């Protein structure tokens, strides 16, 4: 057997690397000393570390393999993609090896952390345009490279754009990247539901359509807004609402009052990325030629301005963690999850565990939380029909959803003890008796009356029906959709998801169902929102 | 005026021919003494460009989907001569980006059909030594991932998989899987799994013929490995193999052995829950076997109370009806012994 020390990574003689040449990293944990924690994700922690034989600072990503239930293939692909990266703007892996049940990935250390971090610490309201421009250009070069290789990054966001001390900008984290060229078969598009909700392109959320590397361009546009404002659009909303808003609302843009300071070409560039029709979005290669990037200053010059007088990365990370801890102590547990969510800590896979965690975030009893502060400040110019439309929808939509939300809340609250029963019956998609069920039941429904009412219809279905009725709300909203039990059911689900007065298990189940039945929800979305338009913006239809 | 002298656009066959000429040049001259470094650099750049062009024809680019007719032309010209051999042999000589492009080209060609024939498969059958080259790539960190990816595509062809299964290379995989470089070891592991699960009848035949040495190695090197991921992938693969209907004879043989049972019972006590669960899916076969040999019964009876106690507290994190049903069945079988 080959021993750890003898299998060394050969230096890439043929690659033109701008950084100091990497030493030959060994595959033995003893040669590395882990220092401070500098980042964390769903199943991984990133440490600053010293490679002792060369006394070189590097980053070690420790991935807990025992917590990963998806196939080992995904981990393999991630490690291999990172190993074969050779581009100045993409984080590569020097090597990787197994230590106990962790996978250690040895990577370059980016001393200033992510752009998200930098904004949290010193620029909560976003960055200046020249800085944004250089960061975006570097990111775009990274995307052009990855796309040329057939990879979709799938998690482009400020939290994954890393900065090193001299102002070097690199795109990192391939936890979710997929290869279009995978296995020689050009799959036209991928069909998995992966990413971080705020940054996800509409087609990623749409079942059946599939998506390709243009999804990264959308995320790139969202990232531009994130850098300009300090947070992604919709980031104050719970994930499920974000999903629906992404599908339903007009694309976000740089058209708020305070965006006046940004140049026309910047706004135009963002608008090109945030087109819902993916075929109309430019490729990364094309976007690089946009006038916005014509006179971009070198990141070494611009990024420096945001790096002055900052404490070392690990202290910043610690401070942010403590802030969260304080947050946790002062409010409920959901608050932490929410803040994590807003900070953009994403899980790599939109899987059940992840959804379960995110469902926890569903918490907007407080109406102020629902309100995206900027929406009301949108400039009322209505440059195009679409944006005008989107705007009025948005304004009305907010007010109304708050109102419906409050009426929809089940006064009795949902007891968690029923969730198991609920889980036991997932198969009855469109049993007709449910139609009567909801329509007769109003917002004031309580579990007792509905149980007794449905008791005669067959005991085994009872609990499910009861649950359904309890989540049902706002009879006015549904009055037009009697015709189809399918739509009813989907609306209930949507309502349930949007109005969030749900227990943890329930929402998980719903979310899982959401995941598997996106098609159903698609069908349902249109009539539902058609209906909402009727109610809220009759002049638009 | 300019238009008049513009060269005609190259056909896919032209690109293949040029690539082949450049490969021949690089194969002969690269790294050799007395070569003109500048000329060599030019040729290398030209080769990279041509291989990139091949990739674009086969996969399309960001804007255009691949054109079937062009792919057919390319494939025909490619396999008319020894282009595949040259391309594989030149992988160590070209730069990283061109290596990746070459890998994708080779991978894609394995699926191209010309008049419903797969030329790649026919070519490989006549040039099986290329597989020896690809497999030994795992011993060279420089090319391991490229050759590994090519190899996995080649063994999609049943005849090629059979060749690899029947070769001495199978023994080497037990080493490759445990290479400390995770990216290489996991690649070997993925190929190993593909070999042992893709072509059912071929696999069943291989396992029956090679039962003794194969499972001896499998048990002692993979299932008893100290490397977490090796162990976890091995136990998962064992379950996949034994639970496959086509391998039922092999399964019966495996679950009739006391030694195998002991290994599985040890894995049930592993510190990782994931390994415990995967082990259970194999252990249950021992218990469910209607014709348990006396030695297996003896062990189960001796450990009956411990096993029952263990299963009483043995649960998956998420509710899993199938698992619970299997567990009930196993408890019933063991109690009734």
From TrEMBL, chain A:
Keyword set, alphabetical order: ATP-binding, Nucleotide-binding
**One Pfam family name from the record?**
Pkinase
Specify where the region named Disordered lies, as residue ranges: 385-484
- What GO molecular function annotation could you give as one example from this UniProt entry? protein kinase activity
Comp. bias intervals (Polar residues): 385-409, 444-455
The UniProt regions of compositional bias labelled Basic and acidic residues, in chain numbering, are: 433-443
* Sites where the protein binds ATP: 61
Q: Which SUPFAM superfamilies match?
A: Protein kinase-like (PK-like) (SSF56112)
- Does the entry feature the keyword ATP-binding, yes or no? yes
* InterPro entries xrefs: Kinase-like_dom_sf (IPR011009), Prot_kinase_dom (IPR000719), Protein_kinase_ATP_BS (IPR017441), STRAD_A/B-like (IPR047173)
Location of the Protein kinase domain = 32-293
Q: List the Gene3D superfamilies.
A: Phosphorylase Kinase, domain 1, Transferase(Phosphotransferase) domain 1
The record's similarity note reads: Belongs to the protein kinase superfamily. STE Ser/Thr protein kinase family. STE20 subfamily.
Q: What is this protein called?
A: Protein kinase domain-containing protein
Organism (species)? Aegilops tauschii subsp. strangulata (Goatgrass)
UniProtKB/TrEMBL annotation, chain B:
Which superkingdom?
Eukaryota
User: Which spans of this chain does the record mark as coiled coil?
Assistant: none
- InterPro entries for this protein: ARM-like, ARM-type_fold, Mo25
**Any one biological process term the GO annotation gives:** intracellular signal transduction
User: Which terms in the Gene Ontology molecular function aspect does this entry carry?
Assistant: protein serine/threonine kinase activator activity
**Which family is annotated?**
Belongs to the Mo25 family.
Q: What is this protein called?
A: MO25-like protein
User: Which species is listed as the source?
Assistant: Aegilops tauschii subsp. strangulata (Goatgrass)
């Amino acid at each position: 057997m080959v021993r750890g020390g003898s299998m060394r990574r050969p230096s890439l003689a043929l690659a033109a690397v701008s950084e100091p040449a990497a030493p030959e990293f060994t595959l033995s944990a003893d040669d590395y000393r882990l220092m401070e924690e500098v980042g964390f994700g769903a199943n991984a922690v990133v440490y600053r570390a010293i490679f002792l034989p060369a006394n070189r600072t590097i980053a070690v990503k420790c991935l807990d393999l025992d917590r990963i239930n998806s196939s080992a293939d995904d981990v393999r692909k991630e490690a291999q993609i990172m190993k074969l990266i050779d581009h100045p703007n993409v984080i590569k892996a020097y090597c990787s090896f197994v230590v106990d049940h962790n996978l250690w990935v040895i990577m370059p250390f980016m001393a200033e952390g992510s752009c998200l971090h930098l904004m949290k610490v010193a620029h909560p309201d976003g960055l200046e345009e020249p800085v944004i421009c250089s960061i975006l250009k570097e990111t775009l070069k990274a995307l052009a490279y990855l796309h040329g290789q057939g990879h979709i990054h799938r998690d482009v966001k400020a939290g994954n754009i890393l900065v090193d001390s001299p102002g070097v900008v690199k795109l990192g984290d391939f936890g979710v990247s997929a290869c279009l060229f995978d296995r020689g078969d050009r799959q036209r598009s991928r069909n998995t539901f992966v990413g971080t909700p705020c940054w996800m392109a509409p087609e990623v959320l749409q079942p059946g359509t599939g998506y390709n590397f243009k999804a990264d361009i959308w995320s790139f546009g969202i990232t531009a807004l994130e850098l300009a404002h300090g947070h992604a659009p919709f980031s104050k909303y719970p994930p499920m609402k974000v999903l629906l808003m992404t599908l339903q609302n007009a694309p976000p843009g740089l058209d708020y009052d305070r965006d006046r300071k940004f140049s026309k070409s910047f706004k135009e560039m963002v608008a090109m990325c945030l087109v819902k029709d993916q075929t109309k979005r430019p490729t990364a290669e094309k976007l690089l030629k946009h006038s916005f990037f014509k006179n971009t200053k070198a990141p070494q010059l611009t990024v420096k301005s945001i790096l002055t007088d900052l404490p070392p990365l690990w202290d910043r990370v610690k401070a942010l963690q403590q802030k969260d801890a304080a947050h946790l102590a002062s409010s409920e547990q959901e608050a932490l999850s929410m803040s994590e969510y807003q900070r953009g800590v994403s899980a790599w896979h939109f899987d059940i565990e992840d959804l379960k965690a995110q469902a926890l975030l569903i918490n907007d009893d407080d109406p102020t939380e629902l309100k995206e502060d900027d929406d009301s400040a949108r400039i009322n110019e209505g440059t195009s029909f679409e944006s005008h439309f989107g705007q009025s929808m948005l304004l009305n939509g907010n007010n109304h959803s708050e109102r419906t939300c409050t009426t929809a809340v089940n006064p009795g609250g949902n007891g968690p003890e029923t969730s198991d029963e609920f889980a036991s019956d997932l198969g009855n998609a469109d049993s007709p008796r449910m139609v009567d069920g909801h329509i007769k039941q109003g917002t004031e429904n309580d579990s007792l009356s509905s149980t007794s009412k449905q008791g005669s219809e067959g005991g085994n279905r009872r609990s499910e029906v009861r649950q359904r009725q309890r989540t049902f709300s706002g009879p006015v909203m549904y009055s037009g959709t009697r015709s189809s039990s399918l739509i009813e059911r989907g609306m209930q689900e949507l309502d349930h998801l949007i109005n969030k007065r749900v227990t943890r298990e329930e929402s998980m189940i719903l979310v899982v169902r959401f995941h598997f039945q996106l098609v159903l929800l698609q069908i349902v979305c249109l009539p539902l929102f058609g209906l909402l338009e009727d109610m809220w913006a009759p002049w638009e239809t | 005026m300019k238009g008049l002298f513009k060269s005609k656009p190259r056909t896919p066959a032209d690109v293949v021919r040029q690539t082949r000429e450049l490969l021949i040049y690089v194969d002969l001259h690269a790294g050799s003494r007395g070569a003109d470094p500048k000329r060599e650099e030019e040729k290398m750049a030209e080769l990279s460009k041509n291989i990139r062009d091949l990739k674009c024809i086969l996969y399309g680019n960001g804007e255009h989907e691949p054109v079937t007719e062009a792919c057919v032309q390319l494939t025909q010209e490619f396999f008319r001569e020894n282009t595949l051999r040259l391309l594989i042999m030149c992988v160590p000589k070209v730069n990283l980006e061109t290596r990746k492009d070459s890998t994708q080209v080779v991978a894609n060609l394995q699926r191209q059909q010309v008049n419903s024939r797969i030329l790649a498969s026919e070519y490989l059958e006549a040039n099986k030594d290329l597989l020896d080259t690809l497999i030994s790539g795992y011993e060279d960190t420089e090319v391991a991932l490229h050759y590994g990816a090519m190899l996995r595509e080649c063994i999609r062809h049943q005849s090629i998989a059979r060749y690899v299964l029947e070769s001495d290379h199978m023994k080497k995989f037990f080493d490759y899987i445990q290479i400390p470089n995770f990216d290489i070891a996991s690649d070997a592991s993925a190929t190993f799994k593909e070999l042992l699960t893709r072509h059912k009848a071929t696999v069943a035949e291989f396992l029956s013929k090679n039962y003794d040495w194969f499972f001896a190695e499998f048990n002692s090197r993979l299932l008893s490995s100290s490397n977490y991921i090796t162990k976890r992938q091995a136990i998962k693969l064992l379950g996949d193999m034994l639970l496959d209907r086509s391998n039922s004879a092999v399964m019966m043989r495996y679950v009739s052995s006391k030694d195998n049972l002991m290994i599985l019972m040890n894995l049930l006590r592993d510190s990782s829950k994931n390994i415990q669960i995967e082990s259970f899916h194999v252990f249950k076969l021992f218990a469910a076997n209607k014709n348990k040999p006396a030695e297996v019964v003896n062990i189960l009876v001796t450990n009956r109370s411990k096993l029952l106690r263990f299963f009483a507290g043995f649960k998956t994190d998420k509710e899993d009806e199938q698992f619970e049903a299997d567990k009930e069945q196993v408890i019933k079988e063991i109690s009734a012994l």
